[in-house]
Amino acid sequence: MEISARLLEWYKNHHRSLPWRKTRDPYKIWLSEIILQQTRVNQGLPYYLNFIETFPTVDDLARAPQEQVLKLWQGLGYYSRARNLHKAAQQVVEDGGIFPTSYKDLLTLKGVGAYTAAAIASFCYDEVVPVVDGNVYRVLSRLMGISSPINTTPGQKEFRALATMLISKKDPATYNQAIMEFGATHCTPKNPLCNSCPFQTDCVAFNMGKVDELPVKVKKTKVKNLFHHYLVVLTPQNKTILQQRPQSGIWAGLYEFPFVESIGNLLFHELREDQVFQELLGGVRFRESVYNQDPIVHKLSHRKVHAYFWVIETETEIPNAITRDEAAEKPVHVLIERFMREFWNITKE
Ligand code: SF4
């Protein structure tokens, strides 16, 4: 038996009885789908019932004050969903009170993306368009043993193409319900019910012992914001200080002005209290000015450096200072190069 037929068979015997499954009214299906985004069924159900009771038609919802809609939504979180719900209801009413009847037209409604449009188009109008949500990714990746990451564009394209191939052309509505229900209650993220699974003999993940490894998601590393306050010392003899970076890590071995690193912006009086500043210029008389009020931002793979350059004109010479010409000869990293080019008119060949 092909996959879609087995899914339909499984669904017939195992699906939960939920109110939005007993209707083909696009208003009610749409309401349920928006409420159930990022929300568990048990939590969303009372909200769905409450909305239907308070606003029996899309017209009632459209004409309600926004505050009433938000109040009813209270506790569900992601309030933009409620605002979009209200706006989309007004869109429908402005267009004559009839819900769009195709996947393509449903996408024009505020807050309706590919998943919701596919759900409404298939459940209400039998359009052959697959829903692809987290449940579907999980079921397909395990069943077929696909390790393409589900949070990348090529991965998502691959799964969508597969879902389009597998969907029942005869009964797309029940097929879509079935694969999502199967993912939600049987092939669950943790402890899937493999031992009573109708797909066990064919399931690639089960047979290769990879159930816990699929689906694959690429880890998105969080970009860290760093603030570098470079101290551009200028002595009476027009000398400055450069220091070399360690031989490993970013900009390994390159030169730069001494700098104070912070996780936020600093005022000058905070900067001068820093140990780096004190070791360099403690006890020296100087006049300071800031070269750039807005930071020069440089993105690295996991970091975003916000660079400020503080020009410190000292009244006396500083040990280890070098002339600006000598400084211009040193290999420097991109931020220093930019400062030298813009402030000192120095361009390295
Ligand atoms: S055998 Fe397990 S992993 Fe494979 S489809 Fe069934 S429940 Fe999912």
Question: Which ions and ligands are bound to the chains?
Answer: iron/sulfur cluster
Query: In angstroms, what separates the terminal alpha carbons?
Result: 70 Å
In CATH, the homologous superfamily of the largest domain goes by the name Hypothetical protein, domain 2
What's the tally of helices? 16
- Oligomeric grouping of the chains: single chain
Unreliable segments (pLDDT under 50, ≥5 consecutive)?
A: none
| Percent of residues in helices | 40-55%
Indicate the radius of gyration in whole angstroms: 31 Å
Largest sheet: 5 strands, mixed
- CATH topology term of the largest domain: Endonuclease III, domain 1
Which shape, going by the Cα principal axes?
Answer: elongated
CATH top level label of the largest domain: Mainly Alpha
The name of the CATH architecture of the largest domain is Orthogonal Bundle
Mean pLDDT value: 92
**Count of spatially separate domains:** 2
Q: Please write the string of helix (H) and strand (E) elements.
A: HHHHHHHHHHHHEEEEEHHEEEEHH
- Helices and strands: which structural class? alpha+beta
Strand content: 5-15%
**Counted beta strands:** 9
Protein name: Adenine DNA glycosylase
Organism: Nonlabens spongiae
Function: Adenine glycosylase active on G-A mispairs. MutY also corrects error-prone DNA synthesis past GO lesions which are due to the oxidatively damaged form of guanine: 7,8-dihydro-8-oxoguanine (8-oxo-dGTP).
GO molecular function: 4 iron, 4 sulfur cluster binding; 8-oxo-7,8-dihydroguanine DNA N-glycosylase activity; adenine/guanine mispair binding; metal ion binding; oxidized purine DNA binding; purine-specific mismatch base pair DNA N-glycosylase activity
